[in-house]
UniProtKB/TrEMBL annotation:
Pfam short name (any one): Cyt_bd_oxida_II
Name this protein carries in UniProt: Cytochrome d ubiquinol oxidase subunit II
Gene that encodes it: cydB
One GO CC term, this protein: cytochrome complex
Cell membrane is among the record's keywords: yes
Locations listed in the record: Cell membrane
Keywords: Cell membrane, Electron transport, Heme, Iron, Membrane, Metal-binding, Transmembrane, Transmembrane helix, Transport
Species of provenance: Pseudomonas putida
One GO biological process term: aerobic electron transport chain
Length: 369
């Protein structure tokens, strides 16, 4: 198989792994973040057996698959697996234990639980802004910014987009797997998260189109002779991140599906159709990540300091033999991982159960929406 085709296939496969990991994490993160708010809405003392919607080993498997794939397929992007691992560790360690009460400890746990959901969006926002790094002749990357400098306004806005869409997924999952009075409270919060997503996503799209500088490759940059870092001609331009949407008219389906999936999830949640709401929320996450992927392609990590140091699908990939062997293993392991995840989701028991409900909620006639 042609090396250039292999590079494109692995870009698609890594994108699929990222989407799978975010959805799996979203089922847990969204429900965990929303747990105290659900308690406040329902007036119930909730006893989570474990607020994760899927076994922890499944999240570890997705995280391990993505990290190993990044390291092997794009070896020059050495720090991305570490960043993904940090997000995963934060997500796995922020597990509230014991009875969920409205104590300071519970609220602190939920605030910490916001971090992985926000960080996913902050990382994506910084990729669109460009990372402040350069590369010397030895191809060693040097970071020129600070950690606080990564929390720029646009990156925080994309973080809000990520947080709201994960909260919507988690709330719809709580509707499906929750018990008793948790379901109507989760329905209300799913609707609120969906509205926040629509507003933040639209704002980010307008900001990206109107004011944010993008990057483009010089014509002829896809030649196989230019597969070494530092040999690319990268040009800045305000239309950089819009170029692919103009070149590929079908790509406009990604933002349309992101908005449409959210609206469908809102309608399904309002009618109490939890299963459809979960599927629509997952569609929103898939479409939103596809929007970012289409906008960035072929860039993986653009550099805002040294344009020629930008890492792309074409110059950051492994050798043809390595990618070919990896594709054989991936064609077997990825379907197994997907089937195992779906099977665990279908057979998992309810993980959010109601222990007590106060009389005021039981006799409340206040409308949910």
């Amino acid at each position: 198989m042609d090396h250039e085709l292999l590079k494109f296939i692995w870009w698609l496969l890594i994108g699929a792994l990222l989407i799978g990991l975010v959805i799996v994490e979203g089922l847990d993160l969204g429900a965990r973040v929303l747990l105290p708010f659900m308690q406040g809405q329902s007036g119930a003392a909730l006893q989570p057996v474990r607020p994760a919607s899927l076994p922890r080993r499944i999240k570890l498997l997705w995280l391990l698959a993505l990290s190993c794939t990044l390291s092997a397929a794009w070896p020059t992007v050495g720090w991305l697996p570490g960043l993904g691992g940090l997000i995963g560790v934060l997500a796995l360690r922020c597990e509230p234990c014991g009875q969920a009460t409205r104590s300071l400890r519970t609220w602190t746990a939920q605030v910490i639980g916001l971090m992985p959901a926000m960080l996913i969006g902050v990382v994506l926002g910084n990729l669109l802004l460009g990372m402040p790094f350069s590369r010397c002749a030895g191809q060693v990357s040097h970071f020129h910014g600070t950690l606080s400098g990564l929390f720029r306004p646009f990156a925080l806005l994309v973080g809000l987009v990520s947080l709201s869409m994960l909260c919507q997924l988690g709330a719809t999952w709580a509707m499906l797997r929750g018990a008793g009075s948790l379901r109507p409270a989760a329905r209300q919060l799913a609707c609120r998260a969906g509205v926040v997503f629509l507003i933040s996503f639209s704002t980010a799209a307008l900001w990206l189109a109107a004011d944010l500088r993008g990057y483009t490759l010089a014509e002829g940059g896809h030649s196989a002779a230019l597969c070494m870092p530092g040999q690319w001609v990268v040009l800045p331009g305000n239309t950089g991140w819009q170029a692919n949407f103009r070149a590929w008219p079908a790509a406009i389906l990604a933002p349309v599906l992101a908005v449409g999936g959210t609206i469908l999830s809102l309608c399904a949640a309002a009618r109490g159709r939890a299963g459809l709401a979960v599927v629509a929320s997952a569609l929103t996450i898939t479409a939103m990540l596809c929007c970012v992927g289409v906008a960035l392609f072929p860039f993986i990590v653009p550099s805002s300091v040294q344009l020629s140091a930008s890492m792309t699908v074409w110059n950051a990939a492994s050798g043809e033999k390595t990618m070919g062997m990896m594709l054989i293993f991936a064609s077997v392991l990825m379907p197994m991982l997907l089937a195992y995840t779906v099977g665990a989701g279908l057979t998992s028991r309810n993980r959010l159960s109601q222990v007590a409900v106060v009389d005021s909620f039981q006799h409340s006639t206040r409308p949910i929406l």
